Amino acid sequence: MSNTSLVSPDEIRDRFSTAMSAMYQAEVPQYETLLALVAQVNRETLERDPALAERLRAHDELNRLGVERHGAIRVGTADELAMLRRLFAVMGMQPVGYYDLSQAGVPVHSTAFRPVDDAALARNPFRVFTSLLRLELIERPALRERAEAILAERDIFTPGARKLIALSEAQGGLDDDQAERFVSEALETFRWHRDATVDLDTYEALHAEHRLIADVVCFRGPHINHLTPRTLDIDEVQARMPAAGMNAKDVIEGPPRRDCPILLRQTSFKALEEPTRFKGERRGTHTARFGEIEQRGVALTEKGRALYDRLLGVSREKTHRLANEAHQRVLAEVFAAFPDSEAVLRREGLAFFEYRLTDAGRAAEAGHETDLEALIEQGLVTARPITYEDFLPVSAAGIFQSNLGGAQNDAYDGQANREAFESALGAAVTDEFALYAEREAASKERVLKALRR
Ligand code: OOG
Ligand code: NI
């Protein structure tokens, strides 16, 4: 087969995320309501703030806004995780970052599968937060072995998906027809199943150990548990959620509202109780799926991230048990120590930026100086904040917990094990800081090279 007939991984990812969103809308009607609310708030925000609209357009962010989603799944075995890595690779998604959730009392560790280069991110930055259950943290051997035995029985991939993944690896991609089939076969892995694979007693025993364990072990596949659209004004969405019939989480996770948004802010509506059929004709319910909204800001350097983590730590005690409004007020007070102007974030090396020539820069004579800040002042270069494409472990823990009825187990704490995770995955996870640093460095290099011409 000639390579020209292959569809790009970006195209496959775009089709897949569209198909996933359609499936989730059909499965969880409240998700449709959420999408409508976010679209409405985004429209109003852009109308109110034409400068923001112009910036987003200039930065290739306006197009992707309407399609941008992240989702989350949880799997039970190393084989499942390793196969998912191959499945996501077909769509140009790589494992980025290691997240230890044991520190938050949740027995999983995770990565995010996502596209990494500028063009792919601009096309569709679809990301899937993927967690591996850590059965080794279950203390009772009998229960652990039971869970392992149940998981060993299932195959979360269709034979068709397995074939097409192997085919894609062998021929270096998929043609249009194969891509179409891949999307529909791969989607099956993420579908919700009302029929549990176990009887109610087994479900309850696993549930009593940790709700999440029951969620991972007792079903045929790792149902997508939420899909998250991106909003330009999360405070507004949070305020409007109750009127739209959504049971919003109490507080917004992450940094406070700022002039220069940093990292990621998130909120969710609580999981639904869904009727479930257990083996032996018993009926019950399972709570798994919810909705989430995110607002993204600039990616921070390690220095910026250390400051963020420190301030978040300081705010933790002060905001304990506060309702959202007071919580946000106190958070903003604490984060007053975090510079809130792009120029300062840049000069102090707190955040990542992408440098581009302005029209004047493109027309400029050769032989310019190489100090980027000076070039910015002369109007030859602009710097745009690089959007944070990843997740935050403390926020993720808050999202997990809001949907686990606050269940946590401190016995899991302090059990980070990145090596075990990577060995299950069958690959190293990419360091997110290195990715942002490379993109920043490449843009600097391009700009300076053009001005040296
Ligand atoms: C994942 C929770 C983490 C986020 O946005 O931080 C997450 C899960 O509940 O499986 O999705
Ligand atoms: Ni999420």
TrEMBL record:
Enzyme Commission number(s): 1.13.11.93
Listed Pfam families: HGLS
Cross-referenced InterPro entries: HGLS, YdcJ_bac-like
Bilayer-crossing regions: none
Key words, A-Z: Dioxygenase, Iron, Oxidoreductase
One annotated GO molecular function: dioxygenase activity
Requisite cofactors: Fe(2+)
Protein family membership: Belongs to the 2-oxoadipate dioxygenase/decarboxylase family.
Protein name, UniProt field: 2-oxoadipate dioxygenase/decarboxylase
